[in-house]
Specification:
about 100 residues; two-stranded antiparallel ribbon; about 55% helix; 2 strands; mainly alpha
């Protein structure tokens, strides 16, 4: 898992640096993890609210594998003051359209 997370964080490094406040104690993740995974897998557009702040930008679908996305979500869930948890590649795959 460390290898995948490291690779994914390198690929998403600027996103993590610029947007880590989205991840810290994220109510968006806690409210509906499948919705958050689907947004990464399939892309996302339209307004969302994260930790009380509204955002309305387009996020393209990720090019990472299901396993890499699962590893990144597991990392996020267990860091940034989130409650912990694990995401499996099968859960990511289930969100693909």
């Amino acid at each position: 898992m460390k290898k995948h997370v490291s690779l994914a964080i390198k690929q998403m490094g600027k996103v993590f640096q610029l947007h880590s406040h989205y991840l810290a104690g994220s109510d968006y993740l806690a409210a509906d993890l499948s919705r958050a995974i689907s947004g990464v897998v399939n892309g996302l557009s339209g307004e969302i609210t994260v930790n009380g702040e509204k955002y309305n930008q387009v996020m393209p679908a990720s090019t990472l594998t299901d396993e890499e996305i699962a590893d990144v979500f597991t990392y996020i869930l267990n860091n940034f003051d989130n409650k912990g948890g694990e995401v499996r590649a099968a859960e990511v795959k289930a969100t693909r359209k």
